[in-house]
Design a protein that fits this description.
The chain has 2 helices and 18 strands. It is mainly beta.
């Protein structure tokens, strides 16, 4: 499990993310663009090195331990255009990391490449459209994304595309129709057999503006998940949700959704609570806090289980102490209940990631970065237990 602060380019690149309140699912909330502040094309380049220690409870040929120094580097670019009718933005970055000792599966070099493109268009005062697209090729598990496995399983590609159409029927009533498609594919054939999948989500929402800052919502969603190399765990979910969006100020907003998810697969049928929560807080450019939570069924690491029901929550914060020093930190937690049915014994898992770091501006555009993260996975399956310590130190430049 890794937050963005411990991705392959963490501590190397200072890339601007984007987020705003949205009603089309947790990933849509995370990937939605923030068009409130223009950003010229900004390039960044960075290099760093560190030490990675990952130890499994029971080592085996599929999950070997890591005890290695590493070096890494990367480049990236960001841009945001604030336009009244058609704002848009993009983020791109790429990097490479080399382990000086053997890493899992006898490889020691891994690559990353990411791209995000966000655009909105006001067709009329009533009709608006928006699109958020994101793609990544990487190796680190990413629980914030919520689609990759928790264990280190090699390089994978993940793609996400979300389209929204909103129409204001009156000053208070607005409907939003959306379509989301995302897919994950692993390079390792053994992992690919059980994890590669394609997900599609259709959603219809109606919102009522109680006040200029508060809206009540009702929403229906339908998700279809098809596994690409197996057919025994394909599933469908119906969601009936209600929620509220509230802007506490120009800098603090929250979004809450709650209801039921009716889950049906080739193995089981179940109905359970579903919920989402998002908070976005920004104080000028000095402090920002982002908090996302989700409760529901997901298709990650189902393997021989009938289903997986998870609660995921994570918070990231940055604070600029002064002109030179910026601090960052993150904490995330994942609880998962794997239902084994008649095939496998049921198990539960708890996973925690804590991270902290700093960036110190040495000159006008050159910074020194330090980062530390600790991860633990506690599972009733001892072959999945692990703990990980990772520390890095490096420099980056932007221009």
């Amino acid at each position: 499990m890794r937050l963005t602060t411990t991705s392959l380019l963490a501590g190397s690149l200072l890339l601007l993310g984007s987020t705003s309140a949205s009603a089309q699912g947790l990933l849509a909330v995370q990937r939605a663009a923030d068009f409130t502040r223009a950003e010229p094309v900004t390039w960044s380049i960075g290099v760093n090195g560190g030490y990675d220690s990952l130890k499994y409870g029971e080592s085996n040929e599929f999950f070997p331990d890591i005890e290695s120094f590493f070096i890494q580097g990367g480049v990236g670019a960001t841009y945001t255009k604030v336009d009244r009718r058609t704002p848009w933005s993009f983020d791109i970055d790429g990097g490479i990391i080399n382990y000086l000792d053997d890493a899992p599966r006898n490889e020691d070099t891994f690559y990353s490449a990411r791209a995000a493109f966000n655009i909105a268009h006001e067709i009329s005062e009533r009709l608006k459209i928006s699109n958020n697209a994101f793609g990544t090729y990487e190796v680190e598990p990413n629980t914030a994304m919520g689609a990759s496995t928790t264990l280190w399983n090699g390089q994978y590609f993940y793609g996400y595309e979300n389209f929204n159409l909103s129409y204001a029927w009156s000053r208070r009533i607005t409907t939003t129709t959306s379509y989301t498609i995302d897919s994950i594919r692993y390079q390792d054939d053994f992992v690919s057999q059980s994890e590669d999948r394609l997900s599609q989500l259709v959603a219809q929402q109606i919102s009522y503006a109680v006040t200029p800052r508060t809206s009540l919502t009702a929403e229906y969603r339908y998700r279809m998940v098809n596994f690409l190399n197996r057919s025994d765990v394909d599933y469908r979910s119906h969601y009936i949700l209600a929620g509220i969006d509230h802007a506490w100020s120009q800098r603090l907003s929250t979004s809450v959704r709650g209801g039921v998810e009716m889950f049906s697969s080739d193995r089981t049928d179940s109905t359970a609570p579903y919920g989402e929560f998002a908070l976005d807080y920004a104080v000028a450019r000095t402090t920002s806090i982002r908090w996302f939570s989700a409760l529901g069924f997901d298709g990650t690491e189902i393997q021989n289980f009938d289903s997986r029901y998870s609660f995921r929550t994570g918070i990231n914060a940055t604070h600029q102490v002064d002109r030179r020093l910026t601090l960052n930190g993150g904490l995330s937690y994942v609880y998962s209940d794997f239902d084994g049915g008649d095939i496998s014994p049921s198990i539960t898992e708890n996973s925690i990631l804590a991270s902290a770091g700093l960036s110190y501006l040495l000159w006008s555009n050159i910074s020194m970065n330090a980062q530390y993260s600790y991860t633990i996975l506690d599972s009733e399956d001892p072959t999945r237990d692990f703990d990980r310590n990772r520390v890095s130190l490096g420099m980056s430049a932007s221009f």
